[in-house]
Every structure is written in structure tokens, then in C-alpha cells.
Amino acid sequence: xxxxxxxxxxxxxxxxxxxxxxxxxxxxxxxxxxxxxxxxxxxxxxxxxxxxxxxxxxxxxxxxxxxxxxxxxxxxxxxxxxxxxxxxxxxxxxxxxxxxxxxxxxxxxxxxxxxxxxxxxxxxxxxxxxxxxxxxxxxxxxxxxxx
Length: 147
What we know:
Thiol Ester Dehydrase, Chain A, alpha+beta
């Protein structure tokens, strides 16, 4: 099934405002160690279980930017509904509010907050929560542009 696409200024596109897209996944060792290898961020808090236990954590934690990256598939679901190319202009107010230990299931939520037809921008809120507790682990504002 193909997702219908709409011009940014259309009533159909405007109906995206307030809509939330969500997905869950378990943050696995492969995810964290692959991300560490790709980025070069091999800090002990991501790679050394015993180190983290000795510092009051339940184990190694995921990179905050990896959690942000998980929301990318949700922004794509929004962009895929807009006619033409939509690109990310970046993120504002990114906050990592709680650590996520490897093996934790998270739920990412992506809510369209505003569509500015003059600037051709889509402003959305990205939130990542720990599924078992509902604790917020990440919040950010994402800005995309229809080009």
C-alpha cells in the first residue's frame, strides 16, 4: 500500500498537526556498540559494564544521540506524506533526561506541532520514553523543510 502525499499547503497536510507517530524497540548491545564504532564515542559509559556498575548505574547506557536517531524513522513517516522532498534542518532544545541501559525497551513518539507554509517548515516534538516506567529519556524539537 502506498502512502498518499499532499502539498504542504493543503488541508490534508494541515491535518498532520497534532498527530503522533510512535514505535518501540529494545536498545541492544549491537546498536550501542555499532554506534560507538561509527562515531568513535567509545566512552566507558557505553562500553564498560563494570565501570558503570561501579558508578551507580545498572549497566552500560545508550548514547543520547542514538536515542535521537531512533526518532528518524518517525520523521520519515511524516515527510513521506508531503509532496516533494523534505529535509531535516536540525534539532533544537535536545535534552537527554534519563539514562537508558542496554536491554531497555523504549518508545519513541514524534508529534507534528506546527506547519509553517510560508517558510515551508514542519516543526515537531520528539520524545523517547522508557516503556516499562514511562520515564522520559529524551526530548527535542525537530525542524524539517519541504524543498
